[in-house]
Amino acid sequence: MKVYKFGGASVKDADGVRNLRSIVSGEQDLFVIVSAMGKTTNALEKVFEGIQRSDTALSLETIASLREYHANIIDNLYHQHHTIEAVEALFDELESLVKAGGYRTEDAEAWYDRTVAYGELVSTLIISDYLNNSGVENKWIDMRKCMMTQQRHKDAGVDLEASTAPLRGAVEGASQRVFIGQGFIGAAPDGTTTTLGREGSDYSAAVVAYILDAESMSVWKDVDGVLNADPKIFPEARKLDELSYLDAIELAYSGAQIIHPKTIKPLQNKNIPLYVRPFGDKRKAGTVIRATANRVNIPILILKRDMVVLNIRPRDFSFVLEERFDEIFSLLAKYRLKCRLINNSAVNLSICIDSSWHLEQAMTALRNDGFDVLHMENMELLTIRGFTGELYNKYAFGDNVILRQATQSTLRIVRKG
Ligand code: ASP
Ligand code: MG
How confident is the model at residue 232 (pLDDT cuts 50, 70, 90)? Predict the structure, then answer.
């Protein structure tokens, strides 16, 4: 079995879907994971915002435009007006959800998941229908029945053990040799729909590869492979041919947009190579991520924006790491703050975290526990793996630099955005 993953950008229009078809046709024993088309998830977040703010009109308008966007893709694929009943039914269901009301703030994250999951359900139904009608026989798989997650919404981890039997069951014994499943979504033990975090389809694909013991996983993207930097920010960016799992997980964690950070572990655990390939040209090799002792020989620069720095200090002057470590990090975990860098002195802890819905709550909890907390928003985290003296001098100084940390291999700088 091979696993292919197509992101939203690669299936944003009918040409993208036709291209997907050309990439998968002729393949046997293939599991295809697909994201929502184009910017659908962002639009669904807007639908959710409407639900949250009791702005039914906003939700319904957004659903109407999503219906139209998908209907256009379908018509274009079939070169005539074509309706897919199951897609219509999903949009009807979403509309009913909005109209029925019943939203509760306490369940915000469950409602979020329930709403945004429609993107992947719709995209996979369209793609499966089109492939079946154009000679690529396939089975549509409802990942809410196979991807079992922990009881947690908006950023759920997959329960590999619980997912094994249902996923294998869905594949084994099927007459089709190509499977189409949604990325990003799953189900919690209580049966509610969960999501794995924004851009989580890579992670879904890696889990599928792990459970089905795939020979490889490929992510088809709108770039030539993994670059050593984001070309929009660093124009001298170059493609890397090969990366080790270790470099890849460090890069993803530092904010390289190329691959979701949770993707690497399942693949590394079973030694499954990950190919990052350009969907525009099947012949190009892209980048392979696998077990290798080779280190990257050019510096890799990653800029992660929209970060927050918290300065935390115990009011009673206890030593911050020796005496208060547990308390602080339990609170961070409780509020699911993703900490990317820590720096301490005797009574001061600075951490750089992703911005989050729960920031205010976490700061209040810390203050109630006897800490002074200062926070700075709109920060950037620049990570340079394999930095040179020249790069150090170029980036480590300046009025906007708040914090710098260097190991032998990696320089990390927190600066004002
Ligand atoms: N559609 C989801 C998102 O845009 C998941 C993904 O693309 O991987 O975040
Ligand atoms: Mg997406």
Answer: confident
Give the residue, out of 198, 219, 222, with the most ligand 1 atoms within 8 A of its beta carbon, to mutate for a pocket test. 198
Atom of ligand 1 nearest to the CA of 120: 1
pTM of the model: 0.90
> Residues enclosing ligand 1, CB less than 6 A?
7-8, 35-36, 41, 119, 183-184, 198-201
- Tens digit of pLDDT for each residue in 150-160? 999 999 999 99
The residue whose CA is least distant from atom 6 of ligand 1 is 199
Secondary structure of the chain in the HEC alphabet? CEEEEECHHHHCCHHHHHHHHHHHCCCCCEEEEECCCCCHHHHHHHHHHHHHCCCHHHHHHHHHHHHHHHHHHHHHHHCCCCCCHHHHHHHHHHHHHHHHCCCCHHHHHHHHHHHHCHHHHHHHHHHHHHHHHCCCCCEEECHHHCCEECCCCCCCCECHHHHHHHHHHHHCCCCCCEEEEECCEEECCCCCEEECCCCCHHHHHHHHHHHCCCCEEEEEECCCCCECCCCCCCCCCCECCEEEHHHHHHHHHHCCCCCCHHHHHHHHHHCCCEEEEECCCCCCCCEEEECCCCCCCCCEEEEEEEEEEEEEEECCCCCHHHHHHHHHHHHHHHCCCCEEEEEECCCCEEEEEECCCCHHHHHHHHHHCCEEEEEEEEEEEEEEECCCHHHHHHHCCCCCEEEEEECCCEEEEEEEC
Would you place residue 314 in the very low, low, confident or very high pLDDT band (cuts 50, 70, 90)? very high
Ligand 1: distance of its center to the CA of 84 in Å?
Answer: 23
Give strand pairing partners of 3: 31, 217
Ion ligand 2: residues, Cβ under 5 Å: 8, 35
Tokens 């639009």, located at residue: 43
